[in-house]
Amino acid sequence: MALTKIERRKRLKKRIRKKIKGTPERPRMCVFRSNKHIYVQIIDDTKHHTLVATSSRIALFKNFKGTKTQIAAEVGKIIAEKALKKGIIKVVFDRNGYKYHGRVKALADSARSNGLLF
User: Fold this and answer.
1) What does pTM read for this prediction?
2) How many CB atoms lie within 10 A of CB 76?
C-alpha cells in the first residue's frame, strides 16, 4: 500500500532520530516547515529543553516581502545570531524527514554562513 507524504516523512524522521541526539556540548537544531511558515529550535535532548527557538511568524516578518526561501534564509540568520549569543557554536542538524532542498537548505546554509558549525 502506498504511503502518504506525511507517513513517509514520519518514517524517515524516526530513522533519523535513532542516530541524532542533542547533547549540551552539541545540541540538535530541529527544523519544521509548514506550507506557510518555517520553525527552528535548538534542543538539548539530555534535559529535554529548548535552548533557542525562532520562526517566520515573529513580528519581523509581518511586512517582509520575499519568497518563502528568502524568509527561511532570514530565519537561519536569526537562529545563528541567537545561538551565538547563548554560546552555542556547534549543533547537529535535524532536517526532520524533509529533503535537504529548498527552504530547509536555505535555512541551513544561512545558519552556517552566520557562524553555526554543523
Assistant:
1) 0.90
2) 28
CA 42 to chain centre: 8
C-alpha cell at 29: 537544531
Q: How far apart are CA 11 and CA 29, in angstroms?
A: 19
Tell me which residue of 87, 100, 99, 109 sits closest to 42, measured CA to CA.
Answer: 87
Residues in Cβ contact with 59 at an 8 Å cutoff, skipping those fewer than 6 apart: none
Residues of the chain with pLDDT under 70: 1
Cell of 87: 554560546
Please tell me the distance from the alpha carbon of residue 21 to that of residue 3, in angstroms, as a whole number: 27
| pLDDT tens, residue by residue, 104-115 | 999 999 999 999
How many Cα atoms are found within 13 Å in the side-chain-facing hemisphere of 86? 20
CB atoms within 10 A of CB 62: 7
Domains along the chain?
Answer: 20-113 (3.30.420.100)
Pairing verdict, β 92-94 and 38-44: unpaired
